[in-house]
């Protein structure tokens, strides 16, 4: 678990970070469905935890989920579909010699967009699984923003497979112009800390772990 400590603010004065109000799901009276997965499938174990994290932090009275990465990927994906469909339809209805320029243009655009989609996912979205923000009102309007990345570590002779989270917490004011606090924390636990022998997820344990990391990130300055 790594932490670095300093404090920053827009006016140069040290600010004491406030503890974020990340409520336990139990306190929100949310009904749960039993989640059961294949313990032998590490990809399924990870994606199930990712989805549970999104539901928890994006739930009532928590953070407002930012869907920018999903929107970009969907826009690029649907653009590829429309270009491929339109090019194929035009090439089918038009003589080969007349359709060559349009078909080649469509192929080039399709390859370009799929390449952009791949590069975006790798270099920009990366391991990010959740981005959320919310505004709080005290003596001024402040904005809390969290960005969470996840990663699955394969098993080794000395340890079981692990699930790792990296939480970046930023609190600012003046529409993000004045930084009040920036904290980052990273931690990992074995998948067996969240799943039992039958592959049933202990959602309470997992959500409390996530909640604790967000609170620690808000209390530590980077």
UniProtKB/TrEMBL annotation:
Major location (coarse): endoplasmic reticulum
Domain of life: Eukaryota
Residues spanning the membrane: 72-90, 102-124
BP terms from Gene Ontology: protein targeting to ER; signal peptide processing
Keywords: Endoplasmic reticulum, Membrane, Transmembrane, Transmembrane helix
Membrane topology label: Multi-pass membrane protein
Subcellular location(s) of the protein: Endoplasmic reticulum membrane
Region feature Disordered, mapped onto this chain: 1-23
Keyword Endoplasmic reticulum: yes
Pfam families linked to this entry: SPC25
GO CC, alphabetical: signal peptidase complex
Keyword Cell membrane: no
Annotated family: Belongs to the SPCS2 family.
Purpose of the protein: Component of the signal peptidase complex (SPC) which catalyzes the cleavage of N-terminal signal sequences from nascent proteins as they are translocated into the lumen of the endoplasmic reticulum. Enhances the enzymatic activity of SPC and facilitates the interactions between different components of the translocation site.
Protein name per Swiss-Prot or TrEMBL: Signal peptidase complex subunit 2
Native organism: Clathrus columnatus
């Amino acid at each position: 678990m790594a932490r670095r400590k300093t404090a920053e603010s827009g006016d140069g004065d040290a600010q004491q970070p406030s503890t974020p109000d990340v409520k336990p799901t139990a306190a929100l009276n949310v009904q749960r469905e039993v989640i059961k997965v294949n313990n032998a499938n590490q990809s399924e174990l990870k994606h199930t935890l990712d989805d549970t994290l999104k539901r928890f932090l994006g739930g009532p009275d928590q953070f407002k989920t930012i869907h920018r990465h999903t929107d970009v990927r969907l826009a690029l994906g649907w653009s590829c579909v429309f270009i491929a469909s339109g090019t194929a339809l035009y090439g089918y209805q038009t003589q080969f010699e007349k359709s060559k320029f349009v078909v080649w243009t469509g192929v080039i655009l399709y390859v370009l967009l799929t390449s952009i989609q791949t590069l975006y996912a790798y270099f920009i979205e990366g391991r990010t699984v959740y981005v959320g923000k919310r505004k709080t009102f005290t003596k001024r309007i402040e904005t809390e923003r969290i960005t969470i990345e996840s990663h699955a570590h394969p098993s080794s002779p000395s340890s079981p497979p692990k699930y790792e989270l990296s939480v970046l917490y930023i609190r600012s004011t003046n529409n993000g112009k004045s930084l009040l606090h920036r904290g980052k924390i990273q931690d990992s636990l074995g998948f067996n800390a969240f799943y039992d022998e039958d592959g049933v997820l202990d959602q309470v344990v997992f959500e409390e772990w996530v909640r604790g990391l967000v609170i620690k990130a808000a209390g530590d300055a980077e």
